[in-house]
């Protein structure tokens, strides 16, 4: 009896899987198993022997059955553990491979410009794209009859019938943010104002929606020399090309006096735009000393304060820096173009030391 127990209990504990365990079960306690055979032998025993051996065989059968049940439960647990280990899934990982989304050159350049001017102490201000006639024109010393209004190819918003206030406009430049900023923070102040602007114009270097960044610095003794230094400093940091050449051209804006437009030397040879070489000039910004009437419109006393302002085309300088020949492609949403000219999400705008 002890030999039988040792034999089967040993094999049960050693059974590596359920199939082996089932084979052991049949061999031990199955209908034709060893215990059943022993039971049959009871018939040939004396009543005394039978009384002793019968219950022992039954007890052994029970013991083997429960050992098998225990081993089976153990094997099932181990199988489950293994499955849990194998089928473990990190639900925080992306299911599909990452898409190659990129940062649009306009966003990238806006960040670069912001970083460079931040180093020169400029904050950032924003204003609405739908502007009132007052902020977009009058406050900037562009009265109703002024030819600059026609020159700007303005998009006008519709007014309800019977409403005879002047129509709102899609802002034609970021200059209205000058007025809004003066009203909000007064003087002294130093800000840039990046954003979308609109003009009805369409060719290789003009789109009906484009981007400008306005700059404005107001203090007691700001001069044209400060303006020139800031712009040259900016271009050096931004373009990162040796031989950058700027041309300051006397010009006229109603909101600055004196005024200057700034062009940058470039070449279009072979359809590629290159900087600091060639015989072409691309206008990148308008600038000047803020007109006393503009300071006054912003609630600032022109006898105590003066300031410079400039407005620069973000798309223009993006084209120049990254050699993109056609502005219209910026807004086509062509995935091939976006992948080619786009920037990685982690490509932070860097300010190079020196
Ligand atoms: N607002 C002008 C334009 O859009 C640019 C400008 C801004 C000029 C500030 C002078 C001062 O062309």
From TrEMBL:
It is an enzyme of class 6 (ligase). Binds 2 magnesium ions per tetramer. Residues 107-349 form the Aminoacyl-transfer RNA synthetases class-II family profile domain. It catalyses: tRNA(Phe) + L-phenylalanine + ATP = L-phenylalanyl-tRNA(Phe) + AMP + diphosphate + H(+). One of its GO terms (biological process) is phenylalanyl-tRNA aminoacylation. Its cofactor is Mg(2+). It comes from Jannaschia rubra. One of its GO terms (cellular component) is cytoplasm. One of its GO terms (molecular function) is tRNA binding. The keyword Cytoplasm applies. NCBIfam families: pheS (TIGR00468). CDD domains: PheRS_alpha_core. The keyword Cell division does not apply. Tetramer of two alpha and two beta subunits. Keywords: Aminoacyl-tRNA synthetase, ATP-binding, Cytoplasm, Ligase, Magnesium, Metal-binding, Nucleotide-binding, Protein biosynthesis. Its EC number is 6.1.1.20. Belongs to the class-II aminoacyl-tRNA synthetase family. Phe-tRNA synthetase alpha subunit type 1 subfamily. It holds the Pfam family Phe_tRNA-synt_N. This is Phenylalanine--tRNA ligase alpha subunit. Its main location: cytoplasm. Mg(2+) binds at residue 257. InterPro entries: aa-tRNA-synth_II, aa-tRNA-synth_II/BPL/LPL, Phe-tRNA-synth_IIc_asu, Phe-tRNA_ligase_II_N, Phe_tRNA_ligase_alpha1_bac, Phenylalanyl-tRNA_Synthase, tRNA-bd_arm. It is found in: Cytoplasm.
């Amino acid at each position: 009896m002890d030999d039988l127990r040792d034999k089967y209990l040993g094999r049960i504990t050693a059974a590596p899987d359920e199939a082996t365990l089932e084979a052991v079960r049949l061999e031990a306690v199955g209908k034709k198993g060893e215990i059943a055979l022993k039971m049959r032998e009871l018939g040939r025993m004396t009543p005394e022997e039978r009384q002793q051996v019968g219950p022992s065989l039954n007890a052994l059968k029970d013991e083997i059955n429960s050992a098998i049940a225990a081993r089976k439960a153990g094997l099932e647990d181990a199988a489950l553990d293994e499955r849990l280990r194998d089928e473990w899934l990190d639900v925080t990982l992306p299911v599909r491979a990452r898409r190659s989304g990129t940062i649009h050159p306009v966003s990238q350049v806006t960040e670069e410009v912001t970083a460079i001017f931040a180093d020169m102490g400029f904050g950032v201000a924003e204003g609405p794209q739908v502007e009132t006639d007052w902020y977009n024109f009058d406050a900037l010393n562009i009265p109703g009859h002024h030819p600059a209004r026609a020159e700007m190819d303005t998009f006008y918003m519709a007014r309800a019938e019977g409403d005879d206030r002047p129509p709102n406009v899609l802002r034609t430049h970021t200059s209205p943010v000058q007025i809004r900023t003066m009203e909000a923070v007064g003087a002294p102040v130093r800000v840039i104002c990046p954003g979308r602007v609109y003009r009805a114009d369409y060719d290789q270097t003009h789109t009906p929606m484009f981007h400008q960044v306005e700059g404005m610095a107001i203090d007691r003794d700001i001069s044209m020399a400060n303006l020139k230094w800031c712009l040259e400093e900016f271009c050096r940091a931004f373009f990162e090309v040796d031989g950058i050449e700027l041309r300051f051209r006397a010009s006229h804006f109603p909101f600055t006096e004196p005024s200057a437009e700034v062009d940058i030397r470039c070449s279009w040879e072979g359809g590629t735009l290159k900087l600091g070489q060639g015989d072409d000039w691309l206008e990148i910004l308008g600038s000047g000393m803020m007109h006393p009437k503009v300071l006054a419109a912003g609630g600032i006393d022109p006898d105590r304060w003066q300031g410079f302002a400039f407005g620069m085309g973000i798309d223009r300088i993006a084209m120049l820096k990254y050699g993109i020949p056609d502005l219209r492609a910026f807004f086509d949403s062509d995935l091939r173009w976006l992948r080619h000219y786009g920037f990685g999400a982690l490509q932070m705008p860097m300010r190079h030391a020196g």
